[in-house]
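Exercise: predict the structure of this protein bound to NAI.
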Amino acid sequence: MYNITLIKGDGIGPEISDSVVKIIEATNLKINWDVQSAGADVAEIEGVPLPQRVIDSIKKNKVALKAPVTTPIGKGFRSVNVQLRRELDLYANLRPCKNIAGIKTPFDNVDLVVVRENTEDLYAGIEEKISDDEAHGIKLITRKSSTRIVEWAFEYALKNNRKKVTAVTKANICKLTDGLFLECAREVAKKYEGKIEYNEVLVDALCMQLVQNPSKFDVLVLPNLYGDIVSDLTAGLIGGLGVAQGANIGLDCAVFEPVHGSAPDIKGQNLANPTALLLCAVEMLKHLGEVEVANRIEKALYSVLSEGKIKTRDLGGTSTTDEFTDAIIAKL
Ligand code: NAI
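Solution:
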């Protein structure tokens, strides 16, 4: 019996969470889901969108599965997601991106991994209103965080049989901040010489090259904001946000969550694709050592996707979330 924190989030979060819980239940794996709510509704009742009980639950269980939580745009409370990552020091955001059989895209050779620094950069939220006409934001980059994320990326590359790590910055313009990130990346890369290839690219050039020839890239390591933007782009290379998984990993805890947000435009309509969250759950089960169950779920999911008869709307189909969920369970 595993104790796992489950944050169902809002928007499509509860729908996809229920789908994933149902699929895992169908494998007979025993999980005690410690369900913790967070977000705007919670803020109204408890005064804060991320109550301490959520943090405590993850610290106790060490592992969480998290669906997206809405962040008010341009006003309101700070992102629950950003706060959670900082509070738990989940410094590595891992976003693998690989073609899935049955999902047609302009490319059939995408197999790359985005490693995003998860605690600093413009996401640190250090902003100041100077006047009604001027606002400032601080891009926070430190040697400690840059070095550890690049080390994490190289270690990931070694353990997962990857060949190359590419450091992505805008160090030609942000000479001190991205310059420091790059300096750290070069320092770390020296330790892996002869084992893992290393190169560098500017983030704007990377975007162009990704949409022309994504197979050139293997492991990308980026400061927080570039990582956020580029991982949505790479999700688009393999079929969109509905299938793009992710994980936030720290020294003590890991929170598995998809790349996508709460998709308010399709909330409550039984249209959401649970694939991304399901793939997060698969990675979570592997992380817990439940490799056999994880592989069974993955096989059932890929089998439904490759047959292509039951597909959610984001993948060009007409099936509902429930129909897709039931099809996976039938395969199991
Ligand atoms: P989004 O990722 O929620 O949606 C972008 C587009 O992708 C929408 O058209 C949506 O319908 C579609 N989409 C996303 N996930 C899908 C799925 N599983 N199945 C089918 N279609 C899917 O991005 P958006 O609209 O920019 O953000 C909405 C909210 O989510 C914002 O408040 C944002 O701050 C929050 N957000 C939360 C994240 C998290 O909790 N980790 C991550 C990203 C955004």
